[in-house]
Amino acid sequence: MLNTSAKISLPIFTLCLALAVLPVAADCPSAQAAEVGVQGRWMYTIEGDSATEAVQAMATTAAMEDDNVWLLLTCSPDRQTTVSIMHVEAFSYPLQSRVNLSVGIDTHPMLTMLALRVNEKQLSLDSGSSYALLPLLLGGNQSFASIPDSRGQSHHYSFVLKPNDVALSDIRAQCLEH
User: Fold this and answer.
1) Residues 122 and 84 sit within 8 Å (Cβ to Cβ)
2) Is the domain covering 2-176 a CATH 2.60.40.1880 domain?
3) In angstroms, rounded to a whole number, what is the distance separating the alpha carbons of residues 17 and 172?
4) CA 154: distance to chain centroid?
5) Is residue 171 within 8 Å of residue 164, measured between CB atoms?
6) Cα(105)–Cα(98) distance, rounded to whole angstroms?
7) Confidence of residue 147 (pLDDT cuts 50, 70, 90)
8) I want to staple 48 with a disulfide (CB 3.0 to 4.6 A). Which of 30, 32, 61, 137 is the partner?
């Protein structure tokens, strides 16, 4: 069930649908269908595994410059955190398998972190870097990301992080408040 009164564009609807059917797409028979909520520019859900009763929290927000580019935060039951930048279809520029992703949050200095190209649609930070970045993302108002392509050109995206008290509450509780 989608909780929103705002008109939803096709890329947003597509990502929302993807969040809702992730358990089925992952061929996880014990996963329960997810409900997707909306707060500000954030969409969020939890995915439960009825066999283990484990819950994974996920939240995503679209880039201001391109509704097809998303910042995705996930937190698994064992506190494994992943920060990813995703494109709904595929990034329109070539990416190397390892990318020096520059991330800024509000007035904090830019951080350069190694991201791995998962596929043509997703760049992800490793769990340790993601976990270190998470408190800044949760507390920030706006984030900026710069992705260098394999030709040396940079592609810049900005993400509105607030409001997020509801959208990121499961991630906050599961990954940071233990």
Assistant:
1) yes
2) yes
3) 23
4) 20
5) no
6) 22
7) very high
8) 32
